[in-house]
Automatic annotation (TrEMBL):
The chain crosses the membrane at residues 309-333. It comes from the Eukaryota. It comes from Lepidothrix coronata (blue-crowned manakin). This is Renin receptor. Pfam families: Renin_r (PF07850), RENR_N (PF25294).
Amino acid sequence: MADMALGLAALLAAACVAGVCGDEFSILRSPQSVVFRDGSWPIPGERIPDVAALTMGFSVEEDLPWPGLAVGDLFHRPRATVLVTVKGVDKLALPVKGFSYPIENAVPFSLDSVANAIHTLFSEETPVVLQLAPSEERVYMVGKANSVFEDLSVTLRQLRNRLFQDNSVLSSLPLNSLSRNNEVDLLFLSELQVLHDIASLLSRHKHLAKDHSPDLYSLELSGLEEVGKRYGEDSQQFKDASQILVDSLQKFADEMFNLYGGNAVVEVVAVKEFNSPLIRKTRSILQSSQSEKENPYNLAYPYNYNYSVIFNIILWMMIGLALAVIVISYNLWNMDPGYDSIIYRMTNQKIRMD
């Protein structure tokens, strides 16, 4: 079975080399407890959230037959996962020290399942969950993220005002052919400002990076895509913007990795264009009636991945209770009331005194 999976992965990799897969999934930084293998195995676009979940130690509903992720240290999981999605380019000139894999069928994905798992399992602790798309003014915060990033610019007006402050990235980045007077260029630069501000604001709350609850950061950047539409992908502005973005991403990855003490996974998804729009699933009365028609024989539900966990909990709890009853019964049966029990001993002394 393993040979068949590897053979299928090799065929898909050959297809991607031929030009079928153009987008790229890259690992910029990762701890030693998370093991990625060097290869050209394509990763399905809809399974990228499962990769993030598995690296954080969470279970997934379906097995992931992808050779790129190996079994790491199960007892030391990363404290944070940072996933940056860059739209408008299928490949970035990232450093060679990381790992890169082609993406097969680049469909829109969401880390909502990972965020919900963190919120459910660590609701009483201090997790930081931040999902942000600056150009769309879309933000989602859970846990301590509301207090840590309360000063983070999330609207287009806030981003523009932030750029023209004294400590903005405009004073440190080499703009080259980009202009401060163009709205498209300012949108691209404002996304880089968000990366800088996230690391800067988190550095003020370093204690949150040392707790036991995992953190999640999901960022979607589309400024480079707008630069390509405005000037063209062969323009000098697009080339300069791509290089500035690569340098900013590497700096952001190093800062986040160091803030978490080398125990964070930083991933980048470069996608030219998604194949289909993201449609969130909803339940309705029509859906329930349709499922009843598909299962007219009242068959049992499919195997649930939680079955083995529940079975082991119930099994060992019953064994522990049975052993406890046997031990207690044996001690009660062989107990000497006049010597082992304080109740009989005190009662016997009281009778003698009377």
